[in-house]
Write a structure and sequence with these properties.
Strand content: under 5%
Largest sheet: none
Number of helices: 4
Shape: globular
Distance between the termini: 30 Å
Number of strands: 0
Radius of gyration: 14 Å
Number of domains: 1
């Protein structure tokens, strides 16, 4: 699974990446994107009848934090490139999100 303009997503990350993309499409905001709330994640889970596991919740929150940070940086520097030139390998994905531990 590859994003249209982005890197190949490792098999282990495809489900959580898909959940994040679904939630990202419904994101609110007026003066910029709003964070994805726990309520939105819960609503997604209930409507899809797919439980979001604690480690997936942690990854979704980390992705959301990275997304919001990138958006804020682009406001400050509109010439910043839209994507990294570095490919996303399974090793890089694990380095970024493999160490995410559940708060439970």
């Amino acid at each position: 699974m590859a994003a249209k303009d982005g890197p190949e997503i490792p098999v282990a990350g495809r489900r959580v990446w898909g959940i994040f993309l679904d939630l990202n499409r419904t994101r609110g905001g007026g003066m910029g994107p709003a964070p994805i709330s726990y309520g939105e994640i819960e609503a997604w889970s209930l409507m899809r009848r797919e439980p979001v596991r604690p480690f997936e919740l942690d990854v979704i929150r980390a992705l959301d934090e990275a997304f919001l940070k990138e958006c804020a940086e682009r406001v400050q520097d509109p010439n910043k490139p839209a994507v990294s030139s570095r490919p996303l390998s399974p090793q890089l994905f694990d380095a970024l999100f493999g160490g995410v531990k559940s708060g439970r």
